[in-house]
Amino acid sequence: MPDSEFEIINRYFARKAFASKNIILGIGDDAAVLSTPADKQLVVSIDTLISGVHFPAQTSAADVAWKALAVNLSDLAAMGAEPAWFTLALSLPEVDHDWLAAFSESLAAISSAYHIPLVGGDTTRAALSITIQVAGHVQSDRALLRSGAKPGDQIFVSGNIGDAALGLYALQQELERTDDIIYLLERLNRPQPRVEAGQRLTDIASACIDVSDGLFADLSHILRASGVGARLRLDHIPLSEAAKHFLSEKPQLLPTIYNRGDDYELCFCVSKENCAQLDAVEKRLDCRLTHIGEIVAGHELQVFDREGKVLDLSDDSYDHFAEKV
Ligand code: ADP
Ligand code: MG
């Protein structure tokens, strides 16, 4: 390994890593040594972010680092897992110390906010890409799957939907940075993965997914995996005040909210008898849990407007949805 790579690891990643009980050995040897508690199962996921593909090339190093770990934590959240550790494979076109300092600071901030230490990785010279692998723990056989939804289950989402999609639109259109747009951009660049919500739902929800590709597309994954259909009320889908203001000026963007991704909220199903437990769960969270629809027999996703009219999702204005499913 060239000295510069050793220096990068040592200066920016090894020194910022923190100790945790399941980490026998972290960064510095040929591999990390990790333990998993006897009554738990390991939940593992990996995601790559490529500059110009998964984030605009001008995104700041701090936002890239945050998002790279956040999207992976969101996968752990969707499984109901408790974060345990992560590894980082970083490809850099050049050694840019300002970039690395901002990247590693922000990575350390989200890593400690979610109690997930960095235990190893790889550093190479190539076009900018960030691959993060996360691992978490769940009580044995308690992971939340996409496949458990049953007719009669009620459908909920955490937080608000569509902020990130509107933020991306504002960025691409170079709109003036009003307070609303600053909020939407923050939601795009600094998603708050619903890790605590996921863990609290393991004994309550029948199925769960994180909304990364768009609410309709991701709910459709639950429907396919569970062999069921769903009826959604469009006007029940929760929107932030900023999104509502934005949409009042640009109502043509409404389909964008449901068909574009990057929300990193949870969409989950709960049997009618378990719904009574959700109030207590919500009180302990820093986000709302909103009822948006119901699982039904069949395999279709039907979306109703306020007047009870079924929306035609194959309509031109829903073309992104058509592309995705
Ligand atoms: P090897 O040549 O044996 O693969 P490396 O030089 O790639 O070793 O890595 C040396 C140590 O530094 C290992 O513990 C590895 O996990 C860690 N490491 C390398 N790159 C990173 C990184 N970007 N973030 C965190 N740890 C890293
Ligand atoms: Mg290596």
General description of the model:
It is a single chain. It contains eleven helices and twelve strands. The chain is an alpha+beta fold and 325 residues long. It has two domains: 135 residues, 60s Ribosomal Protein L30, Chain: A (2-Layer Sandwich), CATH 3.30.1330; 151 residues, PurM-like C-terminal domain (Phosphoribosyl-aminoimidazole Synthetase, Chain A, domain 2), CATH 3.90.650. The strands form three sheets. A six-stranded mixed beta sheet has the order 8-10-7-11-9-12, with helices on both faces. A four-stranded mixed beta sheet has the order 3-6-4-5. Strand 1 and strand 2 form a beta hairpin. The longest helix has 19 residues. The C terminus is likely disordered. The site of adenosine-5'-diphosphate has 14 residues, from helix 1, strand 4 and strand 5.
CATH fold call of the largest domain: Phosphoribosyl-aminoimidazole Synthetase, Chain A, domain 2
Q: Main sheet, how many strands, which sense, barrel?
A: 6 strands, mixed
Distance between the termini: 44 Å
What compounds sit in this structure?
Answer: adenosine-5'-diphosphate, magnesium ion
CATH homologous superfamily (4th level) name of the largest domain: PurM-like C-terminal domain
In the residues, how many domains can be counted? 2
CATH architecture annotation name of the largest domain: Alpha-Beta Complex
